[in-house]
Amino acid sequence: MLLIPCPWCGPRAEPEFSYGGEPVIRPGPAESVTDADWADYLYMRSNEKGAHRENWCHTNGCGQWFTLTRDTVTHAILSAEKP
Amino acid sequence: MRYSATSLLRQGLAGHRAWPAAWRSPPLQPRYDAVIVGGGGHGLAAAYYLAKRHKVGRIAVLERGWLGGGNTGRNTTIVRSNYFFPQSVALYDFALRQYEQLSEELNYNIMLSQRGVFYIGHSDHDMEMMARAVNAMQINGIDTELLSAEQVRAELPLANFGPDARYPIHGAFVQRRGGIARHDAVAWGYARAADGLGVDIIQNCEVTGFIIRSGKVIGLETTRGPVSAGAVGLSPSGHCGVLAAKAGFRLPITSYALQAMVSEPIKPVLHAVASSWATGMYISQSDKGELVFGAGLDLYPSYAQRGNLPTTQTIVAGMLEIFPAFRRLKLLRQWAGIVDVPWDYSPILGPSPVGNLYLNCGWGTGGFKATPAGGYFLAHAIATGAHHPISAPFDLGRFATGALIDEAAGAGITH
Amino acid sequence: MTAKRLAEGGRIDRGRTLRFTWDGGALAGLAGDTLASALLANGVRIVGRSFKYHRPRGLYGAWVEEPNAIVDVQHGEVQEPDARATTVELREGLAARGVNARPDVAHDRYGALDLLHPFLPAGFYYKAFFPDWHRYEPRIRAMAGLGRVATAPDSRRFQALTAHCDVLVVGGGPAGLAAARAAGESGLSVILADDRSAPGGSLLWQNATINGENGDRWADAVSASLGRGNVRIFARSTVFGAYDHGAWGMVERRSDAPAGWAGERLWTIRARRTVLATGAIERPLVFPDNDRPGVMSADAVMQYLRLYGVRAGEQAVVATNNDSAYAVALALRAAGAAVMVADLRPDLPPAAEAAITAGIRVLPGAVPLRAIGRDGVRLVDLGPQDATSPREAVMRVPADLLAVSGGWSPSLHLLSQARGSLRWDDGRAAFLPDRCPPDLHVIAAESIAAALVEGHAAGTDAAAALGARVTIAAPHCEPDPPATPIRAHWRVPIRRARQWVDLQNDVTSKDIVLAARENYSSVEHLKRYTTLGMATDQGKTSNVNGLAILAETTGRAIPEVGTTTFRPPYTPVPFGALAGLRHGRLFSPWRRLPAHRDHAALGAEFREYGGWMRPACYPRAGETAAQAIRREAAATRAGVGLFDASSLGKIVVGGPDAAAFLNIVYYNEVANLKPGRIRYALLLRETGIIYDDGVVTRLAPDRYLLSPSSSHTQGVLAMLEAWRQTECPAMRVAFHDVTAAWCTFAIAGPRARDVLARLTDIDLSDTALPHMAIAQGGIAGIPGRIARVSFSGERSYEVSLPAGYGPALLQRLLTEGTPHGITPYGVETSSLLRAEKGYILIGVDTDGMTLPGDIGMSGPLRAKPVDFVGKRSLLMPDALREDRRQFVGLLPDDPAAPPAVGAHAVEHTADGQRRSIGWITTSVHSPALGRGIALGMIERGRARAAAGETVELYHLGHLSRARLCSPVFFDPAGERLHG
After folding, report:
1. What is the CATH architecture of B117-176+255-342?
2. What is the largest CA-CA distance in chain A?
3. N or C: which end of chain B has fewer CB within 10 A?
């Protein structure tokens, strides 16, 4: 069970959080984005084995989103950043 | 030596001293016509079909650890083809039909037990969605029936029909041809048969890179040295993203830990595979007597082959809610597999962005049931350079058009 | 049988006799006994049957390592299958039965299966029984399994709890006590978890003098002094699993559980540092017929003697390859048994001197070559370790007890689970800790003296790592004389005989040799092919022996073979404890309406809708639900109906950028909405799929009220927050979910305004409050809101007051409505009314594939310049396909038979197959139209409907036909909204 260092609240247990996927940059405006670029944004992921940047939300806490770097093999949390 | 009751009896009298190795442990050769990366059920099946159907000469399967040690050996062994979309039905029922004659074909008892797979519904809405699914399957030629609560009770008497059930049972649908098979035996059976056809199965050999010239793969770097390959098939389940990155592309896939667990063995009490739409759990009782079950994924991406305690607790609670009598039993073993979950829960098959490199990935939480199909269509793609008609809808290109095959949506889940 | 309870000794209460039954026979034991010690004291020799060959089996161990004594126990209403007799505390009235035998383990008629053993080697089932496996499987299944699970319900409740501490010490033996004592002295919060009824571990049965007193006294005194203040002792508590970031799973078995509560509690412990002091388990010696009843772990023999005052035999052979068993031999001798020692080491160690002095014969260079006696050991053949034939035996000795010690395996399961690693140590013939995670301290000591020193050091180090100081000295224990090295022994090279490695699963050394021959030579293949270590004892006594035999057979060293990864749990954990209170209604509590009880009083039939308990309808006496729904619908259309809409979401969106933000998040244009006005809008996912719908109300220029679906409110709120924080961080906008703060009743029907007229000071005229407008004012004297929105197609007012007024407002509305014939209606009736109007229900008419164009709402895509959520996805090739499924109405050819929801519309392909072109999503008998009507999603549905096409419907083998039409069946002009 992860102990996640919320940048606002400090370390809290995993059940307080929800996972929010890899950070992605939304391309736009819609009319000028190709199908392939849009599909890349929507679906393609680096799915890193090792240090993985990922968004989390302290859902059952302060409600804030932040970015963790977490090792997906050991689950060690390498850093937590405010947006 | 062919396996049979006769050979078993004869060897029994002779002290079992003449059984040959089920497969060799050959050295890695410098060159192969086709190399399969990943020695799980799918990869071994691909090698077998390449040798058997396509008569490809020199074939190797490269396995990072021990053969069958990934998701093949970590799942809950359920086989079924009760899917919503015709494309999925064609794919999964192809696999089930292969399974139905696989013991004989491979001369290895995979213990296919077609005891029926039940999906329990808990509301009128569930039953309507089940009717929609059953009709879709019947139209596509799959043996499914919609059952009333009374019919469910007759076949799953230990399910929770109590007055205070949080999820009352309104009915179910069943695929009678579905069931379970012995997961290790599938890998071992394919391995033995492939080895018998001359396939080199190389264990403890990790692929560390691709040798790519002019957009085509011509070989691989491995922990046992480089190997050149006419064509390469990827069948690495949870690690497909790692390999795709080495080959220079990304996939619409995230790898998660999927837990499974077993109870201590008890005398037979559960004679079918049962699954609940409310708690997402699925359970069967193995021939040894252990209850084998699982449910949802751990909540975040992971390559650690172990699950987390809160998810274990949720899975167990969800199982007990449907089978409260099992609360007296004890958890004997719990483990996790790393599953490659694509956005639309359907696999990604066929050509990749790199020439001569073919994909068999994205089977997510349900790859075991598709083992023969994954291998068969990967072999087809490697041998012919093109899709088999059944695998064509599962091409990676579907994400750029939006033509997803979203089975969760087919089951009525909005997301 | 010659085991017996001695006149003195043991940590038992000789004054308290406990009656229990074993396989139906009445027996008695003493308070403090385990079921196993009581059985042994009663001379019960066969306690189980092996899984495959049904060989008679006796007790081998004394604690969690026990492979043989698996029993079903019943105490009061509580039944537990597959309990280990060695860990079951004896209680008055306990009923225990052996498992997997007919009629009982002493007379098992399946025992004859053992004769077939030549044909049942490892993995025999892979080689035969096909293609007709389905014929064999039921018989094999019936033979398998151990205990039986009772199916009668019991009233037990379980708990799952959480604890935090600075230092967790796992194991309360000498090392654990020393560690907890040290860490506790530093003032840190410490949890000491021990799986027995009291801490002490091996101090309670092995010889040690600590700080001048007997080891057991010292253990009791330290436990008593620690068990208060900052050190918390959990007895009967097994730490079974290592999880991330210092979390541990522990199951506590309470002997003092209140009535109705189960004995087990599940703890999740979060510790900053952890000391693993989990001791070691003695390995068996592997030799021919080493599975006979009466062959026991020497350490277990010692435990039965010292903890329970039970001497396991009167004529004992102690066979060993290390020094530890000499103490057992001496203790047996002191307890009056005739004892002989066979030490396989060729030279007698110094440790043998005391035994010889005590009159014990010690035979060097000898191992058991065979245990003789079908139902229990009678004779033991002794001979050289390298004997290849039983004829090489040098001696045959009578014995009723063969106590064996094959060396010690430190219990490093938790270290392995915590991603530490193990290394093979030839000197100790054991796996020892290698790499250890930084927040762990592991002790794998060879003796009690070493355990005390290492435990104290671990406790001190753990405290120091957390900035605390330990000042007390380590407990002092006179070290043992230097031990003579163990001489490893993995099996006797006699080929024909069967030598058991895994007792419960009947895996012999031959099975391992066969697996290696067939190249199942990875340790994981070995485990899976032979089932070695897969039994309920999880291989605690078999893993190392099995590995070593595999290494020997394949010509590798043990480190080359490696070890399997240990998985949780260390010992089996009750499912009920894992679930805790998450059971029944607490599994996922329902939400209830503020006026729930009043609806009940009105005769509501409640059903669950997306986590809410809501009235489906209000059947009167003698009325079916279907009849009630039709009556309620007709009454609403004819006069007035009342519907509790309190569960509909209410999210307030405020801030200067509220309009701009919502225009990004919503599909429909909402920024140009005038204050006081309401608009229907869709919310899409970024994939373009419809996620939710509902009305958007502009309360003020900088303030909106959203009404998501009841089951989507939390999801919509989360989506708003995600978009605000990650994509629109500069926007000044905030959200507040006020769903639970308001009650809302819809008053619908031509007479709706009349009901409200006397209740409110709000101007209800159509000019002041037109359709899709909202007004604030007094309602029954309380400040509230009235909104003109309709999900029924009728003139409709949604009346909202603070939630606490829900019951009173409901009563008042009914009172005011009585002269107008007001009829409460439920969710099912509401769904019928909306179906007649062709209003979609999210998640019913739509699913995870539905785009806005599919339900005929493509305007905003063309008209709205904002880059709203999901916009680009609506321009993808698949979204622009002509043949998408579209929302349509269907009129069944048989007006009395509305089609089943879930029926598919089918067409016939060129090859004569059916092909689905869509499905029915809603189907009702419409009272307003006097016929069945349906809604569905059909390929090219709008064009087909415009052409008046008829489709064939398929449902569970039955066919029917329906004509496609507009989904708006009733009042297509919408006149009744204003009528």
Report:
1. 2-Layer Sandwich (3.30)
2. 44
3. N
